[in-house]
Design a protein that fits this description.
The protein is mainly α. The protein has helices at 7-20, 28-37, 40-65, 70-89, 94-106, 108-130, 133-141, 144-173, 179-186, 192-200, 214-250, 253-260, 275-298, 300-336. The chain has a domain at 107-336. α4 (70-89) packs parallel to α8 (144-173) and α11 (214-250) packs antiparallel against α14 (300-336). The longest helix is centred in the last third of the chain and has 37 residues, at 214-250. The two termini are 35 Å apart.
């Protein structure tokens, strides 16, 4: 049996394990980095600069395209992209996104059956909208700026709904961590032997550290948000591709012209593909993404299928974190010469 590496080496290896599993805020240095990046003195000037630049570009596009809605659409899109970029670069959220995306596409064997279970009913429902003249009149008549604002509205509603419902999933995770689950969670991690030792000794149980800090809860919440967001984007992209193909095969230009009361604008070199068809497909894909988001989080069957594997990973993370914090507390207590650990080790 190989001797265990020193405790400091095991703790360092655990911090690297947290990073590779999308949990940078489970480490004190990650939380400190996020706090510094969230200071108003750093956030506000950058946000003002992005909004000002986007406003100038948006006004120019609105003037050139004779579409006033392009200005707010450009500002909102640029602001959202800037927030996402700042989160990845400055807040240290890149490990969360990398792990969540890899976890989603790495488990296609589990994702595809769930998506294919939801898609048929969704496609049947949305297809009735696709062959509806009123939908074509409404979507095809929208200028590009208003259509993009509609897509952003659907996306914002989906994100807001997830931010309301996903904390319930996080609460369920940290409420069911006992010693058996803790031992199972630490199996195969740098703290496997430490977990066994801490459970068996007479000291304070490491399960007392299952309560998460604010940054750690946001870490789990953002991981769930990215996982769910990627799944929704997959569904929306599939719906978009389906209706583009379905429209090219079935929607004759004379029918589209009769429904929209205007001549259709064909895409050069692609017969059967028109700007109106693309607009309708984009609108229905965005609507399908919102619909799928609501169903996936509210329906018990779908929620169990979507979150079963991910929540297992989060339970494992909380178990490893409990042992990690317990070791930090005991080390700090020994350094301070205290008989019992008294620090919270949360950072």
């Amino acid at each position: 049996m190989h001797p265990l590496p020193p405790e400091s080496a095991r703790l360092d290896a655990t911090e690297r394990w947290f990073a590779t599993h999308g949990l940078p805020y489970f480490v004190a240095s990650g939380r400190a980095r996020a706090r510094r990046a969230l200071r108003p003195a750093r956030v506000v000037p950058r946000l003002v600069l992005v909004v000002a630049a986007a406003a100038l570009v948006g006004v120019a596009l609105a003037w050139l395209g004779s579409d006033n809605a392009l200005a707010p659409a450009t500002v909102l899109t640029a602001a959202g992209a800037a927030v996402a970029t700042y989160a990845v670069v400055a807040l240290g959220a890149r490990p969360m996104v990398t792990w969540a995306v890899g976890r989603t596409f790495g488990s296609l064997r589990q994702l595809l059956p769930t998506v294919t279970r939801a898609l048929p009913l969704l496609l049947v429902f949305v297809t009735f909208l696709f062959i509806n003249a009123e939908v074509w009149q409404m979507a095809a008549s929208l200028p590009t700026g208003f259509l993009w604002l509609t897509v952003l509205l659907f996306g914002a509603m989906a994100v807001a709904f997830l931010l309301v419902r996903l904390p319930e999933e996080v609460d369920r995770v940290d409420d069911h961590v006992d010693e058996a689950l803790l031992l199972q969670a630490c199996r195969g991690t740098p703290l496997e032997a430490d977990a066994q030792r801490l459970v068996e000794d007479d000291g304070p149980p490491p399960t007392r550290h299952t309560e998460l800090t604010r940054f750690e809860r946001w870490n789990l919440l953002l991981v769930l948000l990215v996982v769910q967001g990627v799944q929704v984007l997959v569904v929306a992209a599939t719906v978009f591709a389906f209706f583009v193909l379905f429209g090219v095969l079935t929607m004759r230009p004379e029918v589209a012209e009769a429904w929209t009361a205007d001549p259709v604008t064909s895409v050069p070199g692609l017969p059967g593909l028109s700007a109106e068809l693309l607009a309708v497909s984009v609108f229905l894909a965005a609507f399908s993404g919102l619909y799928f988001t609501v169903v996936a989080v509210t329906d018990d069957t779908f929620r169990g299928q979507f979150f079963s594997g991910v929540l297992g990973e989060l339970e494992r993370a909380i178990g490893v974190r409990a042992v990690y914090v317990e070791l930090l507390e005991r080390r700090e207590a020994e350094r301070a010469g205290a008989p019992d650990p008294g620090l919270d080790g949360q950072g």
